[in-house]
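2024-03-11 09:14:02 DEBUG pipeline.ingest accepted 1 chain
2024-03-11 09:14:02 DEBUG pipeline.ingest length=311
2024-03-11 09:14:03 DEBUG pipeline.predict start
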Amino acid sequence: MRIAVMGAGAMGSAFGGLLAQSGQDVWLIDAWKEHVEAISKDGLRISEGGKLSTINAQATDDPSRVGPVDLVLLFVKSCDTAPAMRDALPTIGPATHVLTVQNGLGNVEKIGEVVSVDRIFYGMTTLASDLKGPGQVELSNVTRGQVYMHQANKKTSEPLLRVADVLTTAGIHTEVSDNIDWLIWKKLVISLIFNTIPAITRLRVGDVAGSPEAADLVRGVVSEAVQIANRKGVMLTLDEALSYLQEVARVSTEHVPSMLQDVLRKRRTEIDANNGAIVAEGEKYGIPTPYNKAVTHLVRTIETSYSRQVG
């Protein structure tokens, strides 16, 4: 299968590297020239459980070099989905499908501006990785994690099943799930807490999960999200969401999440597609979201004041 990975950061490189290692024809596409050059020169280095593998992978900052592919894997930040899809146009042919397992809400709608809904696969993943430098990523949880996905029109097609099989063969266990919206909202809860609170506090996932002082904040943020999920017809309970947070914390204790990495590197975050999206949905449905509104404003304050921060 010919695959183009749009956004070869920590997650895109991890997925692309494992797929290339399994024999797929993979192109990693990213604007970070040093990263692209390192992969092109020395291969992509993936560390996992203390073992380092070097994978021969194709990398470029120019999607027109790649040409039409069977599958576009979208791993850019949610705030960059629309421009990334425009940049990806040279890789999209009449039979190309697009898979997103990005964080946050609204990505499928943005992808749908470029390709038809029957060619969009969406889902979530529990795989976590850290970008250690140009050309090197580390798989950061105890297991490789999983992917759950479905087609945006909720029909099961041969290409959907083929993509699931290709990912599983690469060592990323993948299931087509009729319960995908429930799974995505459960995963969204993880991002609302273990992306956003570390971005504010600069704590790792395990430290946030183990902080008694953060417990009320965590419960407030999650409770608001669960109310909105229920209003949208996704029957997630507060107990399920909180239990899943603890489950993820146990296997990702030392993980430095992407939003914290963005803050440390003084980059734009995905806050608007995460807690900011909960605030927007709350306004739509008349559900108060004071906890999500507070953390959204804090992260926006941080990311709009990098040049003036002390230390």
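2024-03-11 09:14:41 DEBUG pipeline.report The two ends are 48 Å apart (CA to CA).
2024-03-11 09:14:41 DEBUG pipeline.predict end
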